[in-house]
Amino acid sequence: MKHIKLTLNLVLTIAVFAISSIACSKDTTHFASFPDFDSKSPKPDFNPEKLAALEDRMRKFVVDGDTMGIATLLVHDGKVASYAQAGVRDIVKGKPITQDTIYRIYSMSKPITGVAMMMLYEQGEFSLSDPVSKFIPEFESLKVVKSYEKDGSFELEPLERQATMQELMSHTGGFAYGFSGMDPSNAEYRKQDVLGSSDLQSLVNKVASAPLMHQPGTKWEYSISVDLQGAVIERITGMTLSE
Fold first, then answer.
1. Residue 199's pLDDT is what?
2. What pLDDT does residue 44 have?
């Protein structure tokens, strides 16, 4: 498994070097070259009506109250086709979203996890049809929520089949997340403090003690799946995810 470690280290080293070079260099022309924001440069060949529809749809998220502000950037071959902003970055002061607005971005470890998973897949370490329990046997006897009532009572049923690796990687494995939802699965995740787990083994143990939201492969639900992929990576490689 040294190959995956060395490759990831190389990718991270290149990224850090590139960022450091940009930050330290007085010449920022290379930084501004991608994407090319020069309005005089020829734009990619996109349908103007469809670009306008894209920008209108993004603005609608603000108008409908789904978000306070939004920015969209569409780039093709280093050329900017569309760069639009709508809404505000400060509700109290009413400051609008601008091209230089700084955002707090979450889930930045997920791309690393995804790359590691695909590297292991390319190396033949797992098949998309493999059951997740092949690597996390704690999940062999998971139960599934069959029904539940507003008073908190619920009925469980056994798995019809094991969730597959493909379902784990596409949020269709039946797992919950714990952020929201009054269903028994999400409620148990919050009770167990799944998201506050100190390590992946602890997280696996907690998830194994909670029921699935639905039978694997029957519904899409944004979930704890990427964290569980981290546990799979650890089981396959024998290394910690941070390594």
1. 95
2. 76
What confidence score (pLDDT) does residue 220 get?
A: 96
Which of these, 204, 206, 207, 205, lies nearest to 232 by C-alpha position? 204
Helices and strands counted in the chain (H then E)? 8, 5
**Domains with residue ranges and CATH for the chain:** 27-104 (no CATH), 110-237 (3.40.710.10)
Q: Whole-number mean pLDDT of the chain?
A: 85
Return d(Cα 173, Cα 192) in angstroms, integer. Answer: 20
The radius of gyration of the chain from alpha carbons, rounded to an integer in Å, stands at 22
- In sequence order, what are the residues at sequence separation of 6 or more whose Cβ sits closer than 8 angstroms to the Cβ of residue 204? 136, 138, 139, 228, 231
Whether residue 27 is predicted with pLDDT greater than 60 in this model: the reply is no
The Cα 230–Cα 225 span in angstroms is 9
Pairing of strands 143-148, 95-96: unpaired
> CB of 201 within 8 A of CB of 228?
no
